[in-house]
Design a protein that fits this description.
Blueprint: H1 7-18, H2 20-24, E1 30-34, H3 44-56, E2 61-64, H4 70-81, E3 85-90, H5 123-139, E4 146-151, E5 170-171, H6 173-178, H7 180-204, E6 214-218, H8 227-232, E7 236-237, H9 239-248, E8 257-262, H10 272-284, E9 300-306, H11 322-340, E10 344-349, E11 367-368, E12 371-372, H12 374-379
Helix pairs in contact: 5-7
Length: about 375
């Protein structure tokens, strides 16, 4: 992709030139992959096979949860022994006595309300539990790649503060201040920030992970119009409105990076039209908020999930990977640009594999048909 010569690009060039000495010491962006569907529930032999395949693919970082039990501890140890660090996906802990919200019958099977209402997030409970769990991990010598608190907190899927039934609205900054639904979401965001503060305190007083970056929740890609929200009858807050609200209430003092999830539609891969559509989609979903270290506003962005919608030929073996290779090449061009501007903290492709024991291939996977795909190799190559 050709570099833009816009005013914004010139401004970033001037900013990075002034801050060049400090920026030169920054680590390169983390490159890795999501490992989903509870991989810690695999047998030890299955986990070993997974980690050997990841190693063979040059993967050194995975994004995954770590349950607070012997199974989770063994999983983290096994990964670290294979030279693989975990970008730890964490959740909030609710107020004592909080009941998991009951999904309305009309929404059963739609994977909504998969996270606690943020308005019930209890920072003290989080600190006690995660502090103790991190202590166990560090006692085994485990160093993490990152702490990411929350997943897609800006929509109904993972934040039960959003009401159901819903109309498919995308709320903005004014709504967070003036709309009854928006005010409820804002209350949850403030509770979320308190839990982030607890996480920072845990990290800052840890033994092995004091330099491990903290990343805000990867925010849901809301498409270019929110059409899919209307389809599933769920609401959301725009990425920019979420980040601006959190920034105004102290986010930048608590995190080292902003989490973003990006799933642009594959449009004419390799064409000027496709490149323009990709850029527009990314800017609509948080790209403009990414800033270099030391900037007056903004933090480096971590793309903690990214892949594409609308690709075909990836559901059965043998696969046709050509379109995704073209799309990955275009995405990597944008990521390289961000990296050169010191605005990219990490790139974590979605995903390594699908359902662990499912017979059907998952079209989002980098590892398909018992091999790492060409697009996967490109997505997971170092910056």
């Amino acid at each position: 992709m050709k570099r833009l010569t816009s005013i914004a690009s010139i401004a970033w060039a001037l900013m990075t030139a002034i801050a060049a000495p400090a920026l030169a010491s920054q680590p390169p962006p983390v490159v890795g992959v999501n490992l989903v569907n509870e991989p810690y529930k695999q047998t030890a032999l299955e986990q070993e096979a997974t980690f050997r395949a990841l190693q063979a693919g040059g993967v050194h970082v995975i994004r995954a949860g770590i349950p607070d039990n012997d199974q989770g501890l063994a999983f983290a140890q096994r990964a670290y022994a294979h030279g693989i660090k975990i970008e730890w996906l964490l959740g909030v802990y609710p107020d004592p006595g909080t009941q998991w919200p009951r999904l309305p019958d009309a929404y059963k099977g739609k994977s909504l309300w998969s996270g606690w209402p943020l308005s019930t997030a209890n920072a003290d409970t989080f600190k006690a539990n995660i502090g103790a769990q991190l202590g166990k991990l560090e006692s085994k010598g485990v160093v993490l790649a990152g702490f990411e608190l929350g997943n897609e907190i800006n929509w109904t899927g993972f934040n039960a503060d959003f009401p159901l039934p819903a109309r498919g609205r995308v709320l903005n900054e004014k709504d967070l201040a003036n709309d009854p639904e928006g005010r409820k979401i804002a209350q949850g965001y403030l509770r979320y920030l308190k839990t982030l503060a607890a996480l920072k305190d845990i990290r800052d007083h840890s033994t092995l992970n004091r330099r491990t970056p903290i990343i805000s929740a990867g925010l849901a890609d809301l498409d270019d119009s929110g059409k899919w929200l209307r389809t599933v009858k769920a609401d959301a807050v725009s990425v920019d409105a979420t980040l601006h609200f959190l920034q105004a209430n102290g986010l930048d003092q608590l995190v080292d990076g902003y989490g973003l999830h990006l799933y642009p539609l594959a449009i004419s891969p390799g064409s000027a039209q496709g490149q323009a559509a990709l850029r527009a989609h990314l800017e609509l979903n948080g790209l403009t908020e990414c800033g270099p270290p030391g900037a007056a506003k903004g933090k480096r962005c971590w793309m903690t999930e990214w892949n594409f919608n609308g690709l075909k030929g990836l559901d059965a073996c043998p696969i046709d990977d050509s379109s995704r290779v073209a799309m990955v090449r275009e995405m990597r061009s944008v990521l390289h640009e961000l990296a050169e501007q010191h605005r990219l903290g990490g790139s974590l492709y979605y995903t390594w594999q699908g359902q662990i024991h499912a017979p059907k291939e998952d079209h989002d996977s980098a590892f398909l048909c018992d091999a790492l795909t060409e697009s996967g190799k490109l997505a997971l190559s170092p910056m």
